[in-house]
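Thread title: Can someone regenerate the structure for this chain?

I was given the following input by a collaborator and told the matching structure tokens would be attached. They weren't. Posting the sequence so someone can regenerate them.
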Amino acid sequence: MTTPPVLLRPITDNEYPRWMERAAASFAAGVGPSRGLTPDEALALAYEKTERLLPEGPATDQQLIWIAVADDEPVGSLWISTKSNVPFIYGIEVDHPHRGKGYGRAIMLAGEEECRRLGHTQLDLNVFGDNTTAIALYDSLGYTVISQQMRKAL
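Best answer:
Regenerated them for you:
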């Protein structure tokens, strides 16, 4: 599969509320099962953490939120924090109708290029252990495990 071209453009104030809902729901879907939370507890935690990281919404300093566009159509989004020495990907999402077409790879590569342009030489992210699709993508892009948390059900 070839990687389709995407353009990352800053999110608009009008797009932000809908993006925030999707970002919180996506994080809740991963964090809930991993922490044994109910869906409502996971969603509350996701909103709390996201609002703490983005107190000024898309205008929050050192937080980069982009909409990924292909052929003038939004296909996904990417959120990278540059608060620490190594930027951190808080969220990448490909919109449902566009999944399985290479946009995840394209968005990641565009984000890496943006970080290089800003002078960074590394990029970090976290992925839940059961997200095999994302893990395969990150492996194929050259990301390596630097920390691993494990759990056993008793």
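The mean pLDDT is 94.
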